[in-house]
Structure formats: C-alpha cells, structure tokens
Amino acid sequence: MDLARGVISGELDLAIVTAPPNDPKITAATFARSPLYVALPENHRAARKESLKLQDLNKDVWGLFTAQANPLAHDAIMHLARTEQIIPNEIHEVLSTSDAFYVVIELGGVAFVSKATALNTQINGIVFKPLSDESLWFDTCLVMKAEEKSRVINQFGREFLRKYSPQPQSATQMALGEIA
C-alpha cells in the first residue's frame, strides 16, 4: 500500500504492487496473478502438502496482515474464513514480515505472506506453501498516475507490460500508452 501511496503522492513514477487499491488517481495494469502464501513450522500437520487450502489452517494461531497494512488480503482471508466456518485459535495482526515470522517461530502458528516474501526467504524450521483457494489469489500490477504525462514513463510502462504480461494486453494496459 505504501508503494501505491507513493505513486499517488508523486514520490514515485511507477510501482509494482500486489492488490493495489481501487483509486481513480492511479492506473493499475495487471501483468501477473499470484497466490497468497503461508509460512508455517516445518512440523505443521500440513507442511508436506504441495499447496494448502485455508481449511488446512483451521484452529491454528494466525499471523494476519492488519486491515490497514493490506486491506484486500485481510478482508479476503477473513471473508473466506467466515464463509467456510474456519476458526483460528487466535489472530495476531502483523505489520511486517518480522512480526509474521515471530508468530511462526515463537508461537508455532502460521503467517500469511506474499509470494515474493515466500520465494525470497529462507529460515530454518519454516516452510512456505501457496494457498490454492482462488479467492486468495491477487493481481500484481504496474501502477502509475492515471494522468501521467511523461512519454518516458508511459513508454517504459508499455514495454514492461509487453515483456512481462503473459496474456494479451487489456484495455487498461493499453491505456498506459495512450497518454503522450
């Protein structure tokens, strides 16, 4: 969320953001869709599974993003938990990855983390597994100001999306290059 706010305020020209806010001041062009991951102790009952469902975390201690830190992920997790009647043993709201890892290491719980965190972190005793629940998959987007006037920034955005978008460009992605 800090990166999206940086684009809105003009501190940043572009940012790569997972689950950006819906804000008319920015254009968000999706180039990837990724699952949310869970960090869990290597001795957790579900640690040997290839991927997890939220149901696998029923009655565990959860390290969950605060609603302020990542409202979309927080709300999606809580909505699915209510819908499927999944009840965590307790919830520790976390602001950072170090807070999340504390829940796993010190409390023996599980923590929700981004794919980037999962793929770029190695901690003895912790394994990372993707969640297979489709409602817990999020778009990763290139974000820029909606009224961006810089030709260089627009050209960079178009080239980035051309290179990294696996699917044909959508109308939103094309709009990145429409401003000259």
Estimate the mean pLDDT confidence: 90
Overall geometry comes to elongated
Determine the strand fraction and express it as a percent band.
Answer: 25-35%
Tally of DSSP helical segments: 6
Separation of the first and last Cα atoms: 27 Å
**Sheet with the most strands: spatial strand order:** 5-4-6-3-7
Helices and strands, in order, run as HEEEEHEHEHEEHH
- Strand tally is 8
Major β-sheet profile: 5 strands, mixed
Question: How much helicity do the residues have?
Answer: 25-40%
What oligomeric state is this? single chain
Integer-rounded radius of gyration: 18 Å
Give the topology, please.
Blueprint: H1 2-9, E1 14-18, E2 26-35, E3 37-41, E4 61-65, H2 71-83, E5 90-94, H3 97-107, E6 110-113, H4 115-119, E7 126-130, E8 137-145, H5 151-164, H6 171-175
Give a description of the structure:
The protein is α/β, with parallel strands linked by helices. The protein is 31% helix and 27% strand. The chain has six helices and eight strands. The strands form two sheets. It has a five-stranded mixed sheet, with helices on both faces. The chain has a three-stranded antiparallel sheet with strand order 1-8-2, sandwiched between helices. The model is unreliable at 169-175 (pLDDT under 50).
